[in-house]
TrEMBL record:
Transcription regulation among keywords: no
CDD domains: GH32_Fruct1-like
PROSITE patterns the UniProt entry points to: GLYCOSYL_HYDROL_F32
Official protein name in the record: Beta-fructofuranosidase, insoluble isoenzyme CWINV3 isoform X1
Amino acid sequence: MNYMAITVLWAVLLFFAAVANGVQTTKQPYRTAYHFQPPKNWMNDPNGPLYYKGVYHLFYQYNPYSAIWGNMTWGHSISHDLVNWIHLEHALNPTDPYELGGCYSGSVTVLPGGRPVIFYTGADDQNFQSQNLAFPKDPSDPYLKEWVKSPNNPVIAATDGDIDPSNFRDPTTAWQASDGTWQVLIGGKIDGRGIAFRYHSNDFVKWTRSEKPFHSSTRTGMWECPDFYPVSIDSKDGVENYLKKEDTKFVLKASFLDHDHYVLGFYKTETNEFEVDITDFMEDNTDWRYDYGSKFYASKTFFDGEKKRRILWAWILEANGRENDKKKGWSGLQSLPREVWLSTSGKQLIQWPIQEIESLRKGKVAIHAQELESGSFVEVGGITAAQADVEVSFELTNLEDAEEMEPSWNDPQLICAQKNAAEEGKFGPFGLRVLASNNSTEETVVFFRVFKNHTRHIVLMCNDLSRSSLSKVVDKTSFGAFVDIDPLQEKISLRTLIDHSIVESFGGEGKACITARVYPILAIDKEAKMFVFNKGNLSIKMSKLNAWSMKEAKIVPFVKRRKSGHD
Ligand SMILES: *[C@@H]1O[C@H](CO)[C@@H](O)[C@H](O)[C@H]1NC(C)=O
Ligand SMILES: *[C@@H]1O[C@H](CO)[C@@H](O)[C@H](O)[C@H]1NC(C)=O
Ligand SMILES: *[C@@H]1O[C@H](CO)[C@@H](O)[C@H](O)[C@H]1NC(C)=O
Ligand SMILES: *[C@@H]1O[C@H](CO)[C@@H](O)[C@H](O)[C@H]1NC(C)=O
Ligand SMILES: *[C@@H]1O[C@H](CO)[C@@H](O)[C@H](O)[C@H]1NC(C)=O
């Protein structure tokens, strides 16, 4: 069954890819080549990602009518490798009174026996948000093409006690507690306090709110798209079972203030309480975010039973204004799917693009290890620099010469803004200049600085966007993160994936991630260049650089085959 599904899917994909290649329209400079995008219009949150009968499914918030938010439906695409995709018809359209304002975000849960169910938010014409269910019409169909809404909808009404009905949405994947009852979290807000409400049910139909919220914070405002899942403390493998105890920790993620923040803790299965390691979100030095850019939002994970890993998807916003979105005719990408696991320190999560992405690499270019003197600039030539994947690592000696950190330097983004890529230091800036025009009038710079903080060394990773585009309307905020590595013991590594208007960077083997959207005017397509550089006044060693051009992923529409006879 599984084998059949994959084979058929692949054949269909290759066929329509061939068709699509023949009718390619004029290429826009900002459209991506290997990130997931629908052919046109507005897309936001990933919804209910799932591996089912040999097929990966991605649902997503989609407006079928325009490139601005509205009329939300669930778009639906399928894949056998999470790289190449076929678009199917929408899984959910707003048809019933409780969802006439839109079918908002939600998740998929696989019920015992293997039947999937979509748990999603419906907004009515007053934007009152209730929680609803939909089931596959034919669970034996690996493509899950048609979904039927439950006659019991809404299963959780918008008006439940003191809940603010306009801020009550995005159910998580549900799980079973040790007594067998179903548990689900829903994002919300009461009196300005961000909350993950917990509901429980015996039959998945009748749901009751638990007295205490699962977790909440006064600092955050509304929590959108909560996600809650186990991670192994001693392995990169993903965990599916919420009841495993000894070797498992839990992640609670909430989306607020433009970022996806998470806390780690333990889940007590007997009482359904979540014991957080730290007291609150955004504690000093423990404000863990999936991504330190500001365009990675509303993410969701799923357990991939085929490869025993947990995969993270997120919505990547545009940054060049609504008018440009309308002109382009589209808005929004999905991030590259990232594998996510707990670091060996147990303090934070590690993220890395799924291995399948590497199947798009071609034409490897390697630059041999060398000393980068102060002021060096080496071009990474021979690749399509606007559509590329690059890995580089650096080694530092004489670290006692590093600059002392000032006590007030605790906000990495602020340090990166003050000490941008043009500001010469001792160790740093060094790193990559990507999407750079001939004379670097335009360039997006991903770089490091290394400081001394008493007896420790601090590695700062920055993404300077101030010169990323000559356009005036583009958001060019710079980003920064501390990378938890010891440069005395470890190399400082960077992997950056460039795809025309997106730059996704992974520092310290996935310990700090920064995603940026950029809209160069000069440095597009063949005009784009890439350099490795050192502008610090101490020399450093580049121990390795490998770069690849990236092939285009096949992301194609599904064309209905006409049935013979009646239709
Ligand atoms: C929503 O759809 C209706 C047509 O059904 C259309 O008139 C309206 O402009 C759409 N709104 C948005 C924001 O796309
Ligand atoms: C090296 O950088 C530091 C800034 O940290 C500066 O004070 C110093 O003058 C620089 N030295 C040289 C030789 O440029
Ligand atoms: C950039 O430089 C290359 C080689 O020097 C040249 O072929 C190309 O036309 C230049 N592009 C622009 C936009 O000046
Ligand atoms: C860099 O090149 C662009 C066009 O390719 C040009 O407009 C600009 O003046 C150049 N800047 C410098 C400093 O040469
Ligand atoms: C630098 O060290 C001080 C004192 O130990 C500490 O409070 C501060 O958080 C450190 N800074 C960073 C960025 O780690």
